[in-house]
Amino acid sequence: SGTAAANFHPAVIEASETGTPLLVMTADRPPELRGTGANQTIDQVKLYGSAVRWTCEVGAPEERPGMVAYWRFDELRATPAAVDVSGHSQDCQLRRPDGRGDRTTGPHGGALTFDGRGWLECPPVDPLARGGQEMTIAVWLKSGGPAGRMSAIVTRQQGAGSLDSFFLGFNADKLLLSSDLWRVRIATALPRDRWV
Q: What is residue 12's three-state secondary structure?
């Protein structure tokens, strides 16, 4: 990340000269820090010059048209809510029968820990309730091991029935994405005790 990405420059040039396929993925500091004197922040898009065939800057998370909510989960441990930073006031409440909220350190800030007894209760969101045709959910996950049953991460049911508009969660040791609305079911194994 940052200026350390310059250490790849010789390898990128050599791969270019020999026609050797090479994929370099780097991380930069937020774009708003470029040109401000922050010593670890550089323009990585042009870092390797003409030695690359293609480059792409993914960009930082930001409010976009149609965004329903954006939760970072980096609030203080004592906060019983996951604050929506999109400006749409879709704060979610941490619920546990014993009244505790489990927070931990994630790969990029705060994270929530669930052991099958707690959940995150979010207000009804009209676009999700209508079951639109597009939706993006981006999450970092770390499985602590196989669960004895299905455990939801994010779900929205259709009406009062048991059909899911969408379900993202764990089914034993697999990550499961399913939707009765879109008629899809995808399951994939997850590595244990590693963020993916």
A: helix
